Amino acid sequence: MSPILAFDTSAAHCAAALVSGDRVVGARVEEMARGQAERLMPLLLELLADAGLDWRDLSALAVGVGPGNFTGIRISVAAARGLMLSTGLPGHGVSTLEALAHGLPRPVLAVADARRERVYAERFGATPVAAALHPIAALPPELACPGLGVIGDRAEAVAERLGATPLPRPPLDETVAAMARIAMGRGAPAARPAPLYLRPADAAPPRDAAPRLLP
Amino acid sequence: MGDTITVLGLESSCDDTGAAVVACAPGAPPQILSNIVAAQGDLHAAFGGVVPEIAARAHVEALDHCVEAALEAADRGLADLDAVAVTAGPGLIGGVMAGVMCAKGIAAGAGLPLIGVNHLAGHALTPRLTDGLAFPYLMLLVSGGHCQFLAVRGVEDFARLGGTIDDAPGEAFDKTARLLGLAQPGGPAVERAAEGGDAGRFAFPRPLLDRPGCDMSFSGLKTALLRACDAAVDARGGLTEEDRADLCAGFQAAVADVLAEKTRRALAAFAAMTGATGPLAVAGGVAANRTLRAALTAVAETAGARFVAPPAALCTDNAAMIAWAGIERYRLGHRDGMDLTARPRWPLDTAAPAQLGGGKKGAKA
Q1: CB-CB under 8 Å, A78 with B106
Q2: What range does the domain containing B257 cover?
Q3: The complex's ipTM?
Q4: What's the mean per-residue pLDDT of chain A?
C-alpha cells in the first residue's frame, strides 16, 4: 500500500511521519520554538530520501490543521496546498485534537495549549463536544462525564478541574503517524486542508470615529 | 520552449494575493502570460486598515487557487516552467510566510528551482518588464507601506538615495480617509474628494523641505490634518462636503509638493552618482494619484529626464513583477534552497546606513 506522508508544525516542533498500512516507514520529530518555515520542507525531503521514496510513490498527504499556533498551522497548510498542486496528491486536513485522541478508549478529552491559561478542547465519545477555546479556570462542566480520560497539553490541570483521569501523552511521532492513519480511514477529501483556528483574529475597528457630515 | 525562460511568481506580502506567469525569450520583450490578483479589501474594510492576522488567514487559502488560475490563464503547466519565484519579504510576515511555504510546496513537488524575491526589487525592476529600461535609472517607490528613492544600477544593485523616516504616503492617505469618513483604501477616495477642493484654504506643512537631502516625513502631515479637521468640527459641530474637499485637496497638494521637490533633489543626486539624467520611474499604488503624477512628470520634464510610469495594475502589488524579478535573478544563476527564509524586513540597499525609525533590522517603509 502506497504510504501517506503526514506532517505538523502546529506547536513548537517540526514533525513528519510516513505511514504505509499498519507500518510507520519513517518519522522525524524536531523540537523548535521557531524556524519551522525554514526546516519543514528539507525535513520532508530527508524523510522521503531516507525511505527511498519520491512524491509519486505516495498515495496522499495528511497535514495537521490545528488548533494550535496560528503561524505554525499556516506553515504546514500552505506547504501542503502547494505540494497538492504540484504533485496532484490528495491532501487531508487533520485536527491535532483528533490525532491526539486517535486509538484511545472513549470517552476522551483532547486538549491543546492555547497560551494564557487557556486550552483548545474537544471531547470524543459519550456525547461528543465540539472543539472550542476555554480558560482552564472556567472549563464548562458539560465537558466532564463518567470515565473521562484527558490527553494532551495541560492534561493534568484540565483533568483535575473536570474530575477526570489524565492520560500519558504519546511521543509526537505517534501523534503525527495518527494523522496519516486518520487520513487513511477517510474517503477522498471534500475540501482542501484549511487551518482550524477556533479563535477570531485580534482586530478592533478604528478608534477615530468619522466626523458628522453637515449638509 | 528553447531558450525562453518561463517563471511562476507568487505575491502575498500585504493584502493582495497574486500569482502570475511571465515568459522571456532572448532578444524579445518579456511577456506577461497571466497576472491574477485576489484583493482582500472587503475583509479589512471594517477595521480601517490592513489587519495582519486577517491578511495571513486569507492568503493561506487563496494562494493555491490564484496559482491554478494563473497557470490556466497562461495556458501553461508546471512542466513548462523554469522556476518558481516568490516574495520572501519585506512585508507582513504571516502573508509572506504563507507565500514562501506554498511556493516551496510547488517547487519541491514539481522539481523546480525556487527563487526568493525582495518585494521592493519586484517594484524596482518593473520598468524593465514594462518599458525595457536599461540600467541605471532612478526609481521612486511610493505606496501604502513604502516610500524611497533608489538608484537602480543592476538586478541586485540598488542604492538608496533617501526615503521616508516615518510613515509612507499611502498610510497618510489611508489615515486621512479614516479621519474624514471616506472609504478605504484612502488613496482613490481622497483623490476623488479633493476634486474641486481649494488646496490653499488650509495651511499644511511641507515636512523636511528645509533640510538637505532626499529624506521625507509624512507623519506630521497626518497630525496637521487631524488638527485642521478637529478645528473645523469644533467650529460647527461637523464637516461640510466643501470642508472635506478643501482638506483633501490641501493634504494632497502638500504630499505632491514634498514628493516633487525631493524627486528634483533625487534626480540631481542620481546624476551626480551615475552621470545620467534619469530616466525617472515610479511604482507603488500612490503613484496612481493624478495630482502626484502630474507633479512628478513636470519635475522630470524640467530636469530633461524621461518619465516612466508602468500601468496601474503593475504599479500596485502584483505577482507579475515577482515573476519578472525571478527571471532576472534566474538569468544571473541565482537559486534558493528549501530553507528560504521569509523576512518581515529586508532593505534593498544593505550598504546604506539604517534609516531613522527603521529599527535595527532595517527600514520598515
Answers
A1: no
A2: 137-312
A3: 0.96
A4: 95
